[in-house]
Amino acid sequence: MNVMITGAAGGLGRAFADECGSRGYNLFLTDINDDGLQCIKRGLERQFNITVVTKACDLTNAESVDNMLDFIDRHEIRFDMLLNVAGLDYEGDFIGRERENLVKIVLLNNAATLRITHAVLKRRIPGRNFTIVFVSSLASMFPMPLKATYAASKRFLLDFATSLRQELKDENVNVLTLCPGGMVTTQAAMSGIRAQGFWGNATTSPLETVARNTIDRALAGKSVYVPGKLNQALAFLGKVIPRSWVAAVVYWRWKEVSGRGLIS
Length: 264
Hints:
Rossmann fold; disordered C terminus; about 55% helix; 10 helices
């Protein structure tokens, strides 16, 4: 099994790489952080005796992506699975954020993910099953004031993945969308979890568990995975409660947290 992972130097990307390595899968890892990639490569090859290829790439830059694809083609690398992990967020109200940071959310979470997915689908191994995982978020289930751009970008991934799954179901391609709550991936993520108190901790899932269960479900042909019983209940409520009510409650909650200076 040959697996490509984007955002591989981040917390969830590393967890996916470890899980795939433990299964004996060969890996192609990409991230903007080349030092992080090299560190992960050495550890995986030593621990699991697998082939790990890395290529640093700025996924928001078309030329950088084309250079990576040229590298893939020169080495005749083809894939069985794509894990779209790369993404980012900037907390806070829309008007208070830097304009280009807001645009960067969409460039990476959406445009870059489309670019990579399209390219890798054309580089899958002929005649074999192919699996795609999109890392969305529990935030995709709700309108999220004070996280509006991020939540909307993740909603795009959820809707796109659902549509793509239908398009490709007769071509032996399965598409799964991962919609986790909080995860301990970066310092900013940890600060956000702490800021929410009980709810932050209650909706947070261990990275290793999420990675393992995601791959299991993707290979079993599942379409959506929301880790955690509480998160699943919240996702259900997001479908049945009017979205304007949800937006009001979310705004009140995040405004309270940010008002205490815990989120800037």
